[in-house]
Amino acid sequence: AGDDGVKVTVIGTGWVGLTTAAVFAFLGNDVIGYDVNEKLIEELRAGRVPFFEPHLEELTREGLANRRLSFTTDIGAALSTAEIIFLAVGTPPAPDGRGVEMSFVSRAATVIGENLRPGKLRVVVNKSTVPVGSNGWVDSFIRQGLAQQGDAGPVDFVVASNPEFLREGSAIADTLYPDRVVIGATDARAIEALTRLYHPILTQDFTPPSFLPRPAGRGKVPLVVVDPVTAELIKYAANAFLATKISFINEIANLCDFVGANVKDVARGIGLDHRIGEAFLNAGIGWGGSCFPKDVIALIREAEAYGYEAKLLKAAYEVNAAQRFVVIRKLQEVLKTVRGKTIGILGLAFKPNTDDLRGAPALDIIRKLGELGAIVRAYDPVAMHRCRAEVPDLPASYANDIYNLATGADALVLVTEWEEFTQANWADIARLMRTPVVIDGRNALNKKYLEGLGFVYRGVGV
Ligand code: UGA
């Protein structure tokens, strides 16, 4: 492999870690992915990515083929040449639901400390989303690990923060063409090392992969250099703001339903004000996923620790928790009772282009429908396999495709706006259903067209 690239090690080759590793390898650096999960490393070595993220497998295979990218479960080997070490282990919600599970981070930091040898400077960069102040905490765990080594000689390292803003389903594009890069560090050498690593992205000076052309008009990428605590807060604040923005438009959508206004037009009408912006104003059943719920809660808890009540964030959370059940109210309006009715759920994943079921509204909607005595069937283009394995007790059976799901159904509920659903043959679907009722939880279907086909259509605020 190359000579001008940076030697990068990524600890934790899950979704964030593998994306980071594959992209930096693509940009000409020498990257080692390390994970404790031997089966995962074996898969990755064989060029198989065991989770769904567009283009990630291609990029991983390319990295393996040109030897910029390798994988190991040997921490000593992973760290021996590293200049920059990314921490990208999971920070799931804690089992008590009140905080963030930090044991993977503390364990990884300790192991790094136990295995760093004297030599050139190592910059340990935290990419996992961690509570504010974790930078210092990571530093102390690395020191504890170092102390375990006894007298290993002086080991030169600094800890920095570099939050990621990737979306599932567009992780590679978001990494190559970000809106900004945030570096949280006070040490000049750490800032210098990370700026060098990010140089091709900041200047957009690289040949885009054939499958992901550079978006038109994409210029230089702003670099935000701040102290670590501020960087950590930027990450939470960005997600909390976006989540609040969605809860806001959902509240407006509910009002639209009362007064007979159209929330899509409201969103456009306010979004064209550049101070507001049109993005993330799609009303519907609200946000799920592994990030928004966890990060909004984490920020609320963070505030609580200081005796401050984050009222706005709490409201955003509550609006969202209730919003997913709006489709059930609408079903009841149309069908009167759902008991004994066959309801087809279109989509299980929390959003399209992923098989991720964490925080997925579909699961809550299905459980509630089950409680209400409905016969629930579901179909998702990629998430069914995962759903069977991870949520075996879900009160639903599965269909092979959207037409199979429609056959004999009393109503369909669109929960995830997969293109396969928006592009389906709705005339056929109308003929297959017992009663052509569609509740569009994402406002993704064409109301006029469907009504023309004889559907009873209900969106959210449209
Ligand atoms: C989110 C952020 O968008 C990323 O910037 C961030 O890096 C990531 O969390 C993270 O912290 O790792 P993600 O959870 O992958 O990314 O998904 P989004 O595309 O942001 O969607 C989140 C949820 O909001 C989905 O359930 C989606 O259906 C919903 N949503 C989104 C709406 O209901 N309306 C919208 O207008 C946009």
From TrEMBL:
Q: What would be an example GO MF term here? A: NAD binding
Q: What is its EC number?
A: 1.1.1.22
Name the pathway.
Nucleotide-sugar biosynthesis; UDP-alpha-D-glucuronate biosynthesis; UDP-alpha-D-glucuronate from UDP-alpha-D-glucose: step 1/1
Q: Return one Gene Ontology term, BP aspect.
A: polysaccharide biosynthetic process
Q: Which SMART domains match?
A: UDPG_MGDP_dh_C (SM00984)
Kindly give the NCBIfam families that the UniProt entry links to this protein.
NDP-sugDHase (TIGR03026)
Please report the name of this protein according to its UniProt entry. UDP-glucose 6-dehydrogenase
Give the species this sequence originates from.
Thermodesulfitimonas autotrophica
